Amino acid sequence: MERTLIQLFLLLFLTSCGQYKERDWLANRLSEVQSIDPADTNYSDLAPLKKAIGSSKIVLLGEQEHGDGSTYLAKSRLVKFLHNEMGFDILAFESDFFGVNKAWEDYQKGDKDYQDVLDQVYIFWSKSQMCEDLFQTVEESQDTQNPIILAGFDNQQLTNVSRQELIPSLDSIIHQHGVSISPPDLGFFKKTLEEAMNKFHDQQITPGNQDRFLSILHALLKEFQMKDIDPFWIQELKNTRGFMMHTWYWWIDREKDMVNNNYRDFQMAQNCLWLLNEKYSGKKMIVWAANGHITKTDTLFNVETEGWKPSMRQYPMGEVLFDSLGEEMYSLGFTSFKGESTFLEYDSEAHDFVFQSYQFEPADSTSIEFELKETGFEYAFINLREQLGSRNKVDKRIRIWRPEYVTGQLSTIYDGIFYIYDMKPNEKTLTAE
C-alpha cells in the first residue's frame, strides 16, 4: 500500500512538472504586444520581435485569411516599424510581379500615378480601410531620404497592366534587340499568352501547343541572356513560364505530383530572391502574403479537414526561400482565437467586388490559440527561433489558413507567431464604393 502511494505521488509530481514546463516554455518565449494601431509609433513593445529578427534581411508577414482586418492593421504597424527601426525598404506584396513592378517603374519615371500602382495590388489590400494608413505612408516616404519601394512577386499575371502592357512591351523588346523569332512563332506565343491572361485556368490548350509555347519561351530566354537584355525581362520570361505552368497544370496534375506541380509558390520564391538579391541588392525586404505561402514546411499535407488535404506533399514559397536563405529569413505567422473575416463576392449589378463577412469559430481547447487566449493578452508575439529543447519536438495544433487546423512542430512552420485574440473583418475603403 505504501509503495502504491509513493508511485501515485511521483506520478502526480511528474505530471505537474510537465504542466509547469509547458507553461514555462510559453512564458519564456511570449511577450505582450500593446497595439496594432498603425499610428502607434511607440515601438517598445516590439523590442522582442526586433531581437528575434536580428540580422535577417527578409521578413515574411502572413495572414490566415484575405479578409483579416485586424492583421492588416498589425502588419501595417509592423511595416512602419521594420522600415523606421530596422531599415527594411522594400515592401513586396503577393501581387502581380509584372503589373506591380512595371507600374512602380513607370511611377518613378512620372509616367503613371501612385494609384496606378495600387491598382495592381490585389483588391483585399489595395481597397482596404485597414491598409489606408500603410499606403499613405509609402507615398509620403517618396519625399524622404529612405523611401519605401513597392514590389510584387506573384506570378499570376492578371492585373490590367499585365493584360494591357505585357505583350506590347515584350514585343517591343524583341524587335528592339533583334531577337530571332519567326513571325508565326511570335504570333502564336503572343496569342497563347494573351488567352492565358484572360481565361486563366479556363484556357483550353493541347499538350502539343503547350510544348510549342514553352519551346519558344526557352529560346527567347536563352537569347535574352546572350544579348544581355535588361535582367527584369529575363526574370519576367521565367515568371511567365511559372504563370503558364500554374495556369495549365494546377487542376490537371494537382493530385498526381504535388512536389513538382506547385509552380506558383516556387516561382513566387524565385521572384522574391531576384528582387532581394538582384533588383534591390543590399536592401532588406518585407514580404506580405498568406500564412500558407510563408510557412517553412508544407502544412496543407497535415491539415485535418479531409477536403483540404492533398494526396501529395508540396513546397510552399517559405520553404523554398528558407532552403536558400536559412536564418537570413524570418517568417512571422498570424493567428486568432476567434473573430470575423471577409471574402470577396462579385456584384454583377455594381460590376465590382463586395466584402462579405463571416464568423470564425473560437479555437478549441487543444490548440495553441486556446493556450494564448488563456494568457489574457489581446495581442502577443511568440519567438520560435530559439532552441526549444524537448518542447521543439512536440506537435501542436494551429490555424494556418482560414479556420483550418494543422498539426506540426511550430518552429518548423514559422520563426514566430503574432497572436490576435479577436479578429475584426476587413472593410472596404469609402472611395472604393
Shape type: globular
Report the sheet-strand fraction: 15-25%
DSSP helical segment count: 17
Tell me the number of structural domains.
Answer: 2
The helix content is 40-55%
CATH H-level superfamily title of the largest domain? EreA-like (biosynthetic domain)
- Which parts are unreliable, with pLDDT below 50 for 5 consecutive residues or more? 3-21
Which radius of gyration do the C-alpha atoms yield? 24 Å
What is the CATH first-level class name of the largest domain? Answer: Alpha Beta
Structural class: alpha/beta
Question: What is the CATH T-level topology of the largest domain?
Answer: EreA/ChaN-like  fold
The count of β-strands is 11
Could you give the order of the helices and strands?
HEHEHEHHHHEHHHHHHEHHEEHEEEHE
Q: Give the N-terminus to C-terminus distance in angstroms.
A: 77 Å
Q: How is the biggest beta sheet arranged? A: 9 strands, mixed
CATH architectural group of the largest domain: 3-Layer(aba) Sandwich
Q: What's the overall average pLDDT, rounded?
A: 89
Your description of this structure?
This protein is an alpha/beta fold and 433 residues long. It contains 17 helices and eleven strands. It has two domains: 303 residues, EreA/ChaN-like  fold (3-Layer(aba) Sandwich); 106 residues, no CATH class.
